Every structure is written in C-alpha cells, then in structure tokens.
Amino acid sequence: MRLHVGCAMWTHKAWQGRLLAHPLPAEERLRHYAGWCDAVEGNTTFYATPARDTVASWARQTDTDFRFVVKLPKVVTHERRLTDVAEPMRAFLDAIEPLGPRAHALWVQLPGSFGPDDVPTLARFLRRLPATHRSAVEVRHPDFFTDPRAVRLLEGVLTEAHAEWIPFDTTAFFATAPTSDAERDAWTKKPRMPLRAVALTDRPIVRYLGRDDPARTVEGWQRWLDITAGWLREGRSPTVFVHTPDNTDAPTLARRFHDEVRARVPDLAPLPEPIPVEPTTLF
C-alpha cells in the first residue's frame, strides 16, 4: 500500500533557497525535489523527446520507487493524433528506458478535439504499446464527461488495455473568480472539466488544481482525501499531483495532502525527509 504525491515540475524559481538548496547544478535538482515528493509529472517530454543520457541522469537522482508519469510527445498525441506514430514512439520509448521501474505510466494526454468518434484510434494505439509499460489517458472532450455512452465506450477500451483514466480536477479552481495574476492566466488556459473520481486500475492517477491561497487549495481537496483513503483500503496504490496556478507552495501542499490521507490510513508509509536547504551545524 503506497500513496505517491508530486508536482508538475521538479524545479521552480520560487522554491530556490526556501524549499530546495540554491544554487544547485542541474544534475542535483531532481534529487533534492525527491526529498519532498516521490512522484513528478513528466510535462517536458510533451515538447521534445529527451536525450537518453538526460533520462539516465534522472534515474541516478531518484530511488527505484520514485514515480515518473511521462507525457507522450505532442507529435504523437496532438499532431498525428495517435496515427502513423511508430517512429516517434520508438524514439521516445528508447529515450525513457533508463528510468526502468520509475516510469510509472505513459501519459497519453489528448486534445479537446479528440472525441468519442476517435476512440477506435485510441484502442489501436493502446494495443500496440509494449506490455512492459502501463498507460494512462487524459481526455478533454466534454462528451466523455456528459454522455454516458461515450463514458462507457472509453472505459471499455481503457479497461481492455489495462489503462487508467487520469482526471484533472479543476472544479475547486473554477468555483470562484481568480484573485491573482497567476490565477487569471490559468483561468484562460486550464480545462473546465466535470469531476471524475473513478479508478479503473490498481494504480489510479489524479491531477488536482487548487488556488494560490493554500487554505483554498486544502479546502478544495477534501473530497479527494476520502477517495484516496478508500482506494488505499481497497489495495490500490494511487498517485496524486497537486497543482496551484503559481505552484509556489506545491511541494509543501503535496506533502500535506499525504499527511492528511495518512491520518485516515495510519498504516501508510511516511514520505522521505527533505534534504536540508542549508547544511546543519552543531551550534
């Protein structure tokens, strides 16, 4: 039984010198982040497939139970829409191979235009993925949240492929008007999706967007505490990613979420202790 928590990135200017030591060479930043959280979203891989040596550095900085949810390149999901993608997928899978067991799931984030009529394409794509990798799909077409037939169709394909459906919960964020520049920017960019809280596999993945006010973020995740605790009691091992518009306090919030779930499930193992920002002294 394990709950992993993490953020959308492992380095952020607002964390430097406050949560993470500063300055840090590039090959040490992930290791220090991994003292706070034991999972991370691999968003950068959406824009370009990383060099294999770069990925090997990520592996060296993390334990084998650290989780990367690595997003497939946009050329696969958005430009070619899962069709004729054998070559970029081979390159991507070769690049992330050094992660080994740390590669928790291949994150198939699909554009909002990818709707129910495209599900057969998704089914063919998932069938061709190597069995050595789990996959998790994030959809944004509104029919997948409002049309019961579309929901059943997608769930059937994902279940057959042993793939998870990643919900991106933005309901707390959009509940009230934005109050900061970062929130106003996110207001125009983040998807407004209805809440979904159904796990299809033993390793559910949740993305949660709160507010820049930590108290509002905590208030908005209350439902996820009970859902996550319930999954753990069922023997599942969920991964929860905590976002805020500015992400200034995201690592501390992720740890707080873990602590609050652990209060409900006392057998849950604690997170690692963060690496001190400054060396400890005797005096």
Describe the structure.
With 283 residues, this protein is an alpha/beta fold. It has a single domain, classed as Protein of unknown function UPF0759 (TIM Barrel, Alpha-Beta Barrel), CATH 3.20.20.410. 37% of the residues lie in helices and 13% in strands. It has 11 helices and 9 strands. The chain has a 9-stranded parallel β-sheet with strand order 6-5-4-3-2-1-9-8-7. Strand 2 (39-42), helix 2 (52-60) and strand 3 form a beta-alpha-beta unit. The longest helix has 15 residues, at 250-264. The mean pLDDT is 96.
**What order do the strands of the largest sheet run in, or round the barrel if closed?**
6-5-4-3-2-1-9-8-7
For this structure, the CATH topology is: TIM Barrel
Let me know the average pLDDT.
96
Q: Please trace the helix and strand order, writing H or E for each element.
A: EHEHEHHEHEHHEEHEHHEH
**Portion of residues within helices:** 25-40%
Q: Which consecutive residue ranges, at least 5 long each, have pLDDT under 50?
A: none
Please outline what is shown here.
This protein has helices spanning 26-33, 52-60, 74-79, 86-96, 119-128, 143-146, 148-160, 181-189, 214-220, 222-233, 250-264; strands at 4-7, 39-42, 67-71, 103-109, 135-138, 164-165, 168-169, 205-209, 239-243.
Provide tags for this entry.
UPF0759_sf; 283 residues; alpha/beta; 9 strands; DUF72; 9-stranded parallel β-sheet; DUF72 domain-containing protein; TIM Barrel; globular
